Predict the structure of Nucleoside-diphosphate-sugar epimerase.
Amino acid sequence: MERIALVLGVTGGIGGAVARRLVERGWSVRALVRAHSAHRVPQGVAAVIGDAMDGAAVAAAAEGASVIVHAVNPPGYRNWDTVVLPMLDNTIAAARVNRAQILLPGTIYNYGPDSFPLIAETAPQHAVTRKGAIRFEMERRLRAAADAGDVRALIVRAGDFFGPGAANSWFAQGLITPGARPRIIRNPATRGVGHLWGYLPDVAETMVRLVEHDQVPAFANYHMGGHWDGTGTAMVEAIAEALAAPKVRIAPFPWWALRLAAPFAQMPRELMEMRYLWQQPVRLDNAQLIALLGEEPHTPLSQAVRATLAALGCMP
């Protein structure tokens, strides 16, 4: 039988990576996109013009799908309060009609300090930020739908994304400047404070393996161990090594500039809200994932960093 997947958010990093991996695995993949973004749909993916805020458009695009990848987010963190939950409700309604599985890329935002520093899949979710509360509600609605027997829901959680296609990421927007060989690398972390990273191709591979696995429960939540930078300096040092420029300047990230701009612009304000994740070590326990799959896909850091820099136009 033909395996059909619908991807919402295919022009984003994780949506695009999952779509490409599904195509490679022989899936028939559709993507719901606005007309002006149709040219950005990955090769092998069928573009369906529509809006994730339009329930009828989502339902039509999802017809016959066994998996809906819900990787859509408002750009620049704008309108989270009014957009995020209605989009998810449209996905749940479409999945209910098709008895489909919903795949949601999870975040660490759901958790508070009571679950740090090593977060298990079963840890309580006591969000301490506005975005965290919204993400908690998203997962609560998915669990309720799965418990009702209408849909299946799969959440896969990883660290900060980096990799080809992850242009809207801390790596691409905080550590370096894309488009040229970096002259300076900025480190948002405090020396000695660990930080978790998720390499997009590894995350996409993990997600697709789970989607195709026949032992995943109706509601499932899996964590990825990813790339753990235990010193808070391993990532920036790997960038310098990949650039073959060990003397490139590594400087602290200018949090002070974000703080000054936060009262006047939304993006700095949203980034400042997440600073606490750089001020203390926060790691994900992938024990349940390993128990199910036997291993976690894991590209060596040096290889992953070189591929990311090349995709961003930063290699010499």
In short: The chain has a mean pLDDT of 94. The longest strand covers residues 28-33.
